[in-house]
Amino acid sequence: MPGTPASRPLRVAVLGASGRMGSEACRAVDGAEDLELVARIGREDDLSAVVDAGAQVAVDLTVPAVTAQNVDFLVEHGIHAVVGTTGWDDESRGALRRRLEEAPGVGVLIAPNFAIGAVLTACFAEIAARYYESAEIIEMHHPDKLDAPSGTAVHTAAAIARGRAAAGLGPVPDATEKDPQGARGAVVDGVHVHAVRQRGLVAHEVVQFGGVGEQLVLRHDSFDRVSFMSGVLLGVREVGSRPGLTVGLDGYLDLG
What we know:
Radius of gyration: 20 Å
CATH architecture of the largest domain: 3-Layer(aba) Sandwich
Largest sheet: 6 strands, parallel
Strand content: 25-35%
Strand order of the largest sheet: 2-1-3-4-5-11
Number of helices: 7
Helix content: 25-40%
Number of strands: 11
CATH topology of the largest domain: Rossmann fold
Shape: elongated
Oligomer: single chain
Order of helices and strands: EHEHEHEHEHEHEEEEHE
Distance between the termini: 43 Å
CATH class of the largest domain: Alpha Beta
Number of domains: 2
Structural class: alpha/beta
């Protein structure tokens, strides 16, 4: 009896292919037997090349200024999107959800971080937040990063806020009355977030919890962008079976 024909590789395009993350994503897709890299889109390239190449999934690793426009184009053409570009807020995510209502079957994943360890850190932080009076985040990245605080830190702060709300905790204690230089950092969902930009770093996050007489510290370090690729490939493989908008790679993981 003839064997069962092998399924065809999933056709993938990478937007922002000439950047550090984009070039790493191209290598990862190229090296996966079940995926086929059909388009590498740079800054000056027309997005119509994604459609012409017959891409089924596109990975957006561009810049905040264009990512919403890119994703709208992809959704319009029925192409699933895996988005690692930060800069999305409640308004832009809401607009995307409404757009996806008109495109049944199309899936979009917006992942603040593709590293599995970073996803687990946010998950653990939500659990720990229920038990500690104080919580703060320090995020550290290379100086070429365009936005602050990082999308990962914002996602983690939201997780901490959910944990604190579930436990009925009030505001994080802080008696500071005078801070003209902003030394206490940004406040995201009631959590102070401090951003460091320093040469030699890639992507790092420290989440500190404090209680009477103790401290709990969660830390995740990405020393190389290859650490993000397992999450990128997971997103590419899963997004077609997850219609609508998913925010955070944890939505694709079995974390209970």
